[in-house]
């Protein structure tokens, strides 16, 4: 009788401990990045959250939902354009060059209005660890698989992707409580901000 009681008690405790574990997987993150790179990625995500929340003490999901996305998009000033680009550039200097290069690279862009002028534009590094991380996540999340394919094939981050209306509706695959989704959104929107505001001539 005591053995049966101990077995039942052990089963209950095991179930309780399992339920206490985080519901969000870090497997893909740990498989693709070393500890220093993960610290840098967390720094990127935290920076984005602070800028997005305008220093309010809110969690990521509540912050994102409180932004007047529809109004800002209609006025031609999406929320990510309010990210301080000078601070963003300082962030780049606070993470390792290796981490930066696992996510981004620079491309040469021609200035259409003034032919002959070439500018430096931030692009996605299709060969970096971040792209591999997206691909791994995509095996469990079809929306991220689609996003990963778009980024990989185009080589850049597009403002028409991961828009507010989709994030609001697609809660199954874009869960704002998931640290993986938070990181993806942070890198996506910081990339858009960089593409919008960087004014640097290309130097061969």
Descriptive overview:
With 204 residues, the chain is mainly α. It contains 11 helices and 2 strands, in the order H-H-H-H-H-H-H-E-E-H-H-H-H. The protein has a two-stranded antiparallel ribbon with strand order 1-2. It is globular and about 50 Å long. The N and C termini lie far apart (80 Å). About 9% of the residues have low confidence.
Give the SSE map.
Layout: H1 2-20, H2 27-32, H3 35-53, H4 60-66, H5 69-74, H6 85-94, H7 97-103, E1 104-110, E2 118-124, H8 129-138, H9 142-154, H10 164-169, H11 179-197
Antiparallel strand pairs: 1-2
Count of strand segments: 2
Helical coverage, percent range = 55-70%
Shape verdict: globular
Q: Which stretches are poorly predicted, pLDDT < 50 over at least 5 residues? A: 5-22
Number of helices: 11
Order of strands across the main sheet: 1-2
What is the percentage of strand-forming residues? 5-15%
Mean pLDDT: 85
Report, as a whole number of angstroms, the end-to-end distance: 80 Å
What's the assembly state of these chains?
A: single chain
Instruction: Outline the biggest β-sheet.
Output: 2 strands, antiparallel
Order of helices and strands: HHHHHHHEEHHHH
Radius of gyration: 20 Å
Helix and strand content put the structural class at mainly alpha
